[in-house]
């Protein structure tokens, strides 16, 4: 039996550097944007994340896209 993947949701995560600890390691904070349309393009999400990063108090350290999907028999 064949199995198909059906996209259900996406999350756009901004990883922000809030400072450094006593050992000099970065302190990272995540800002998650939920309910992102699964069909949204990677380039579009990257540009939105960069624009939103400019509104944040802390510096942008990374951008992550998290996709979830259901597996169904076809």
Topology, number of strands: 3
Q: Note poorly predicted spans.
A: none
Apparent shape = elongated
Beta fraction of the residues?
over 45%
Q: Give the % helix.
A: 10-25%
**Biggest β-sheet: strands ordered side by side in the sheet:** 2-1-3
Task: Name the average pLDDT.
Answer: 96
Task: Please work out how many helical segments DSSP would assign.
Answer: 1
Coarse structural class: alpha+beta
* Subunit arrangement of the protein: single chain
Rg over alpha carbons: 16 Å
Would you kindly provide a written description of the structure presented here, covering whatever features stand out?
The chain has one domain. It has one helix at residues 42-53, and strands at 3-20, 26-36, 59-73. β1 and β2 (26-36) form a beta hairpin. The termini are close together. The chain is elongated, with a radius of gyration of 16 Å. The relative contact order is 0.40. The chain contains 1 helix and 3 strands; from the N terminus they run ββαβ. Helices cover 16% and strands 59% of the residues. With 74 residues, it is an alpha+beta fold. It has a 3-stranded antiparallel sheet with strand order 2-1-3, with helices on one face. The mean pLDDT is 96.
What labels describe this entry?
three-stranded antiparallel β-sheet, 1 helix
Task: Summarize the model shown.
The chain is α+β, with helices and mostly antiparallel strands and 74 residues long.
Layout of secondary structure:
Elements: E1 3-20, E2 26-36, H1 42-53, E3 59-73
Antiparallel strand pairs: 1-2, 1-3
